[in-house]
Amino acid sequence: MEHHTVKNTPSIMKWSVVIGIVIVLNLFFNYALSLVYKAPDYNEYFPQTQVVPEITTQQDCITAGGQWITQVAPPTSTTSKTQTGYCNPDFTKQQQFNAAEKQYDRTIFIALVILGVLSLIAGSLVAHEVLSLAFAWGGVLSLFIASLRYWSDANNLLKVIILAVALGALIWTAVKKFAE
């Protein structure tokens, strides 16, 4: 039986394994995090009731945690302008749910950045060519996914910090792995 070493393996095979590890590594990161840290459950914030009461006054709406939206009806030939409105009863619940999602996304972002940086470090420390490439690219993809998930919620200072950490990790990996 003939054994092939990495040096004799065709380039396409190496890259297939690298890409496979990169994808599975990031799937592993994301699914492991979802087991450890649960996302906010929509149904906990918006329980479905069998009977939904109609809210017709501003005071009842505010008491229910809703948002009253005032509308002014245009005058007709028989009436002058009249003020009416309707209630968005989920206003407060939606704000609470959005805040919980934002906190969740921030925590997942931090975890994915840490895992991405650790992958980059592992990629620079592992001597095995395929594993080194896979861990390095897996780290880069983890940083990319983390940034995509949280980018819209991050303030400008945090965006600069995110980019600085990613750039620093990439430069460190390049120096460590490709130093002459």
Helix/strand layout:
Elements: H1 11-36, H2 42-45, H3 58-63, E1 67-73, E2 82-88, H4 91-125, H5 129-150, H6 156-178
Antiparallel strand pairs: 1-2
Task: Work out the count of structural domains.
Answer: 2
The secondary structure category is: mainly alpha
Helical fraction equals 55-70%
Q: What distance separates the N and C termini?
A: 38 Å
| Alpha carbon gyration radius | 27 Å
Number of strands: 2
What does this entry look like structurally?
With 180 residues, this protein is mainly alpha-helical. It has two domains: 6-36 and 92-178, no CATH class; 54-89, no CATH class. Helix content is 64%, strand content 8%. It is built from six helices and two strands; from the N terminus they run H-H-H-E-E-H-H-H. The chain has a two-stranded antiparallel ribbon. Helix 4 packs antiparallel against helix 5 and helix 5 packs antiparallel against helix 6. The longest helix has 35 residues, at 91-125. It is elongated. The two termini are 38 Å apart.
Provide a short characterization of the protein structure.
This protein has six helices and two strands, in the order αααββααα.
